[in-house]
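In the design runs reported in the main text, the only information available to the sequence generator was the tokenized backbone. The following block is the verbatim input for one such run; it is reproduced so that readers can re-run the procedure and compare outputs position by position.
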């Protein structure tokens, strides 16, 4: 078979490999241009359990009723696992704006200080504040991506020009981000809703939270700014997706080459994914910062006039370094996500391999190999 073995290893079935033929998605090089899955929220959410080609009949994972649902559930689980890192990243990214608006008494002195102060003032469970909205946005974005990808895959053929394919991908991305953006907004506002002290006031800063939940975020925003308040910063978020997409296209040949070199090494593949994720994240991070800072002004008395005005004001009053506040925590989010995803995929692989090879009445064994080998290799 020109694309590879008919029955690749269990590890390959769980991890996306660029040289595997995903026939039911009718994947072609042209289809690479419509991977518009809302990179603003999903750039770290590559498939954990990938939908399988029909050619893999009899494989253990074929017993699953719907691998897509398993992938979506796994994404939600992993996003929840990394939620503490996500909240710290958002707090550090928006701290200058929160200080100027009077909602934060003093800046954080690094990632560990942010963790410590948040736990001390709000409790350890507060590290998951805003996670319901953010995790829902990630899972919803991926679900929309699956459907839109399947839709375009059934319609794009060789008669489509590259411009039409790119336009389809751009429309898919913009629509996806538009649909989940209110959830991203709500999660961002809740994550940045801090308490400065417990049941007391500290130097004029109230310990009472600004929002009492997702619905309260929407109610207060709609009351002051209307529906447009839920989409403040959308254009900058879309620009961030554009930068990530362009960089992805530029680095794709290198990524595919290195993926093939590390296809039998799950740890190496995870490290490779993490490096490329972080590259896109750092390149587009200033755009994400401006988008989040604009979100934070919705429902407030003082707002940025436009995206350009936000850029200019932040640069003039805070300097270039402000655009990269929280970038270190963002890298930790990516590393933690890949680590949890790798662990989860190995648990899946171990379970289904045990189900396929177990003896004693079909009861699975429990051996787990950290580095998966090709089928037939002892």
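Verbatim output:
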């Amino acid at each position: 078979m020109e694309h590879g073995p008919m029955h690749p290893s269990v590890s390959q079935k769980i991890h996306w490999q660029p040289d595997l033929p995903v026939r039911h998605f009718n994947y072609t090089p042209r289809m690479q241009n419509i991977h518009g899955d809302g990179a603003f929220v999903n750039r770290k959410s590559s498939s954990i359990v990938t939908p399988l080609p029909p050619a893999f009949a009899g494989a253990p994972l074929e017993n699953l009723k719907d691998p897509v649902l398993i992938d979506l559930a796994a994404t939600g689980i992993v996003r929840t696992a990394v939620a503490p890192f996500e909240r710290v990243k958002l707090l550090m990214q928006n701290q200058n704006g929160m200080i100027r608006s009077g909602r934060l008494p003093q800046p954080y002195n690094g990632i560990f200080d942010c963790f410590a102060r948040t736990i001390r003032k709000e409790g350890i469970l507060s590290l998951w504040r805003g996670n319901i909205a953010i995790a829902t946005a990630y899972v919803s974005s991926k679900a929309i991506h699956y459907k839109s990808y399947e839709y375009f895959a059934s319609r794009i053929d060789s008669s489509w020009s590259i411009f039409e394919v790119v336009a389809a991908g751009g429309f898919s991305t913009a629509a996806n981000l538009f649909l989940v953006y209110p959830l991203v907004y709500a999660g961002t506002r809740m994550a940045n809703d801090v308490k400065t002290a417990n049941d007391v006031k500290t130097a004029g800063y109230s310990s009472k939270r600004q929002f009492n939940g997702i619905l309260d975020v929407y109610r207060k925003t709609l009351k002051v700014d209307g529906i447009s308040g839920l989409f403040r910063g959308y254009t900058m978020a879309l620009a961030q997706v554009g930068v990530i997409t362009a960089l992805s296209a530029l680095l794709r040949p290198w990524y595919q080459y290195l993926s093939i070199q590390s296809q039998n090494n799950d740890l190496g593949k995870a490290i490779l994914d993490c490096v490329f994720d972080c590259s896109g994240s750092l390149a587009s991070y200033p755009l994400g910062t401006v988008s989040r800072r604009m979100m934070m002004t919705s429902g407030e008395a003082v707002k940025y006039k436009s995206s350009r005005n936000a850029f200019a004001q932040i640069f003039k009053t805070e300097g270039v370094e402000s655009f990269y506040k929280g970038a270190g925590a963002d890298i930790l989010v990516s590393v933690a996500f890949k680590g949890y995803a790798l662990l989860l995929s190995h648990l899946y692989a171990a379970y289904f391999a045990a189900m396929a090879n177990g003896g004693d009445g079909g009861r699975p064994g429990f051996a787990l190999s950290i580095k998966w080998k090709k089928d037939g290799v002892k």
